[in-house]
Amino acid sequence: MKLSITTENKLGITDDILALLKTQQADLQKLEVEDGKIYLQTHNLDKATQGTLASQIMRVPGVKWVNQIDVLPGVATQQMLASLMQVMPDPVLGVNSKGQIAYANGAAEQRFGINLKDQKPVPMQGVFTQAGWQDKLNAAAESKLPVNIETVGGTLLLEVQSIKGAGDKPVAAMLLFRDHEKIQASSYVVQGEQIDGLKNLVFNSESFAQTVQKAKRVAVVDAPINIVGELGTGKTLLAHACHSLSDRDHHMFTVIDCQAMKAEPMEQLLFGRNNRPGVLSLNREGTVFFSHVEFMPNHVQEKLTKFFHQAGENGPRIMTSSSRRLGQYQESGQMNNRWVELINVLRLNVLPLRERLADIEPLAMYFLQQMNQEIGRNHILNDDAVSKMKRYYWPGNVSQLRQCLYKAVMVNRSGEITAADLDLDGAVSLSTDLENLTLQEAVDEFEKQFMQHWYQKYPSTRKLARQLGVSHTTVAQKIKKHQLKLN
Questions:
Q1: Residue 48: what pLDDT?
Q2: Is pLDDT of 35 > 60?
Q3: How far apart are CA 147 and CA 132, in angstroms?
Q4: Which residues contact 315 (CB under 8 A, 6 or more apart)?
Q5: Residue 189 gets which letter from DSSP?
Q6: Residues sharing a CB contact under 8 Å with residue 435, sequence separation 6 or more, in sequence order
Q7: Which of 65, 266, 396, 468 might form a disulfide with 6, Cβ 3.0–4.6 angstroms?
């Protein structure tokens, strides 16, 4: 029988209730007392005895109410904590005041070979393999910072949380162990604003609305997705949104930037090294997103093709982004045929911002609202500023739009952002700058400013040629024609 007894704060009321239990020969198994509440558990009693005992307790002076409950609050808390510890993927140990292991979750039992079924604490030295491990534990406890430590389960990162009693004296400790590889994989999980499906995508254009509708359909299909679009169009955000709509949404979304990483670090990150697993093994149930996949080294493409063919349904979902359709890189020999066939299943096309003019104003307002909240200001955009933004080419697309607004907010003091506050010299105006020119003159001026903008980002003519999808010779000719110079 389990009872919850509501009482007045009266001295000796607990003793009176326990005396009643004794008269009914009810063996007390658990007792919890808090301000105005007494919880008790006895062995099983017949219904008649339960009724009699409850009536007698109600007549005790100071008792307000008695009712039966399913579980005592303290027991419920212990059960929840135990369940939480058991589902944790990282090993957790509980150490008593004698420095013995009194608790181990399932991950710790498996990793360290600990058996506490007989409820007897075991020595800690069976877990650690390096000399001076006690000093490392003490250092972690005092500094509250993790330390590297060698265990029978490999080299792990250890965090120690002391549990203190009366007089601030340590009476126990919790030890949390983490894999370096898991931490490394987690560091490649996309950071930033919370993704909630496609709800947080800001747009007003019909073209992007069609992209979003298609994304809803392909997101739930567990097949590779290639997102095609220019730099800064929001391909990573769209990929993350598709991941959050899939059946893998509770697992990791890992981003690998193929343009930013060199071949050897990328290979080690993906496949691991020195018997340590890589991202592909650690994130088998989630999604791996290869950004700028066209820059992936050929031998990595071959290894990935082999890995995913062998993994089958037991591997992560593949998502990729590229500036052009994958077939074009396949035809030019830049990408491996078998790799392209593997990843080129579903495709989403994201149009550049200059072809989504209806999205410029709502995006600008959204970014401005975020910045105002971050810095505690209340900036607004006037009509001239919005008009100027709609007239520009935006070679950096949404990313450039956000950066442009950030600069304007940082330098503006009046609270009203005007056209003069927008640093858009690197972009191309499609009206004012090209007025009163012939078609050929306009084309030349447009080409000059466009090339000048990208030449600053890619001062190497070969990299610039790759980015623009033209030959190295063509880029060299354009630079010479327009007498372009690096700032």
A1: 86
A2: yes
A3: 13
A4: 280, 284, 307, 308
A5: B
A6: none
A7: 65
Measured CA to CA, the distance from residue 292 to residue 335 in angstroms comes to 12
The enclosing H or E element of 15 equals helix 13-23
| Strand 147-151 versus strand 122-123 pairing type | unpaired
Residue 207: per-residue pLDDT: 92
DSSP string, 254-289: EEEETTTS-HHHHHHHHH-BTTB--HHHHTTTSEEE
Report how far apart, in Å, the C-alpha atoms of 176 and of each of 63, 140, 163, 226 are.
44, 11, 14, 39
Structure tokens at 232: 């800064």
Q: What is the DSSP string of 29-92?
A: EEEEEETTEEEEEES---HHHHHHHHHHHHTSTTEEEEEE-SS-HHHHHHHHHHHHHHH-SS-E
Output the pLDDT for position 192.
Answer: 39
Q: How many CB atoms lie within 10 A of CB 267?
A: 18
Nearest to 1, CA basis, from 26, 20, 23: 26
Q: Render pLDDT for 268-319 as a digit per residue (tens, 0 to 9).
A: 989 988 777 788 988 888 999 999 999 999 999 999 999 999 988 889 999 9
Distance CA 86, CA 110 (A): 12
Give, to the nearest 10 degrees, the angle between helix 357-375 and helix 397-411.
40
**CA dist 115 → 32, 101, 104, 119, 253 (Å):** 30, 10, 8, 9, 35
Residue 190 binned pLDDT confidence (cut-offs 50, 70, 90): very low
- pLDDT band for 12, please (50, 70, 90 cuts): confident
Query: To which residue do tokens 């120690």 refer?
Result: 160
Lowest-confidence segment of 61-75, 245-259, 423-437 by average pLDDT:
423-437
Tokens coding 263:
């071949």
CA distance 392 to 400: 11
| Residue 193 scores a pLDDT above 50 | no
Tokens of 220: 């739930």
Q: Residue 430, exposed/middle/buried by CB under 10 A (0-12, 13-18, 19+)? A: middle
Strand partners, 273: 276
- Integer Cα distance of 288 and 311 in angstroms: 14
